[in-house]
Amino acid sequence: MKKVITYLFAAGMMISAASLMFTGCTKTGPQGPAGANGKDGTNGTNGKDQNATCTQCHIWGDTLVTKIFQYNASKHATGSTTMEGTRTACAPCHTSQGYQECLSTGADTTAAPVYDAAPINCRTCHKIHTTYTSADWGFKDGATSAWHPRYDETQTIDLAADGGKANLCARCHQARSTSPWVTLPTSTTDSLKPTSNRWGPHHGPQGIMLAGKGAFETGPAAFGQSGHKSLVSCATCHMAKAQGNLVGGHTWWMANDANGIDNNVGCKVTGCHPSLAANTFDVNGKQTEIAGMYQTLKVKLAAAKMLDTNTMLLKVGKKYCQKQLAIFWNFSLVEADRSMGVHNYLYTHDMLASGIAYFTALGY
Fold first, then answer.
1. Which residues pair with residue 320 across a beta bridge?
2. Residue 77: partners with Cβ closer than 8 Å, 6 or more residues away
3. Tens-digit pLDDT profile for residues 214-251
4. Within 10 Å of residue 61's Cβ, how many Cβ atoms?
5. Considering the entire predicted model, what is its pTM?
6. I want to staple 237 with a disulfide (CB 3.0 to 4.6 A). Which of 41, 78, 266, 289 is the partner?
């Protein structure tokens, strides 16, 4: 019994000593030296220190959540055409990597196909993770500067209004050249024979339509120009006051047919169209007028056996005089622009009017 008591006493002393040692070890000591600043985002490889300012953007407040919410409802977010990144001529507009590369190099094609392609996203346009401050919301260097269009690199387009924001968009929303190329757009004697039914300016030429560039001038006078390009940018209207993720903001949608919303808030800015009725872009009936002219020329092109109205593509297998192809090109610009004159009413009107006059004179 005495041995047991001695053993328990010894064990108790050991526990007490351990407790005192633990308490001594965990006692708060003096404050240590300040730690190093956060790295600059290059995985620490260059050793450059920079203040860790991530929370200037990554506050996860409603502002950032809203931008993501809107962007996810945009056409850009779908990434439905990023497979075109495997073509060096397509990657600059169909992939984020291609856009950034060609913005840096000034080339129209990427050096190599982009196989692990990302859709257009925040990093495509903005300086994400460059300074790790709110300055990273700024646009990539050169994105708002003047540029040379693909269909004719001798020309310069500069949509300078609103700080040149439209230049960022228009670098992709432009026409590409096509083969055979129209060199005599008013000629009714020289002919060409396209071999691809996709002959034309390609899709999404809204930027050059706003700029009043890219059409073949086939009329008796130079095509007119509306004032939008000198007053507003794409963002003025397409990023106007958002309604959820249906229109506006980073959705870039102007209309939501499912919900019957036409977001014309941007059209009503001071000095533009303050009295425009809700849910319409039809200023003074001009959009209705252009839609009617578009339909008229569409019928005439179909009657002339140039346009396949099922695919809206060119019928191939025969020769066309260059003026006919020039008019078809202009019609395709209006078709792909989809604004029915909103981007540039006078330019669109004269493009269609010259085509209608030509085919009417031929009896169509």
1. 192
2. 71, 119, 121
3. 999 999 999 999 999 999 999 999 999 999 999 999 99
4. 9
5. 0.85
6. 266
